Amino acid sequence: NAGVTQTPKFRILKIGQSMTLQCTQDMNHNYMYWYRQDPGMGLKLIYYSVGAGITDKGEVPNGYNVSRSTTEDFPLRLELAAPSQTSVYFCASSFGTGSTQYFGPGTRLLVL
Amino acid sequence: GESVGLHLPTLSVQEGDNSIINCAYSNSASDYFIWYKQESGKGPQFIIDIRSNMDKRQGQRVTVLLNKTVKHLSLQIAATQPGDSAVYFCAETPRDSGGSNYKLTFGKGTLLTVNP
Fold it and tell me: What is the mean pLDDT of residues A54-77?
């Protein structure tokens, strides 16, 4: 299994541009998550999904959107990039409640 | 608000020594705790977890201790190796998650440096 994969690894955006961060897992996990990690800080939950077609907001959802059309994929959309969205974004998945979350390698985003 | 925090931002140890990383939490209703290791440029990696009905759990070279009285969590690494150098995060489930772990709250992390 490849586990959780994320693309791209690094991206530079101009203010106001949009982009989609891709996340795919091949472990048949029901739960998927998006986190952001700012320098020297822990991870903050942006959005999560408990199954295909079901998504919900986390701690810091403003400026982001998600969709979950399949079990495997959970893309994160930035519509109007702002400098405050400069961060490292991690996608994670877990089988269900009470189980470990597995993280992808992250996408480093710089908004200038 | 509720939070998970760390006592020390950095810890430097000699190779072969034991390491202890501490974490304080404020939500008395938290019932699931996880320790993650994050190496530079990588995503967090699960190390060990513990539920609130336990006070100690052991893994390979790692032990997690939970003191619910003082809301304190610690990670002990035995015979620390250079490959253990990383940032270590504790995480917990907040009160309104219904006991599930799909809403983890992370602390800021402790940077462990192992000197050869």
Answer: 96
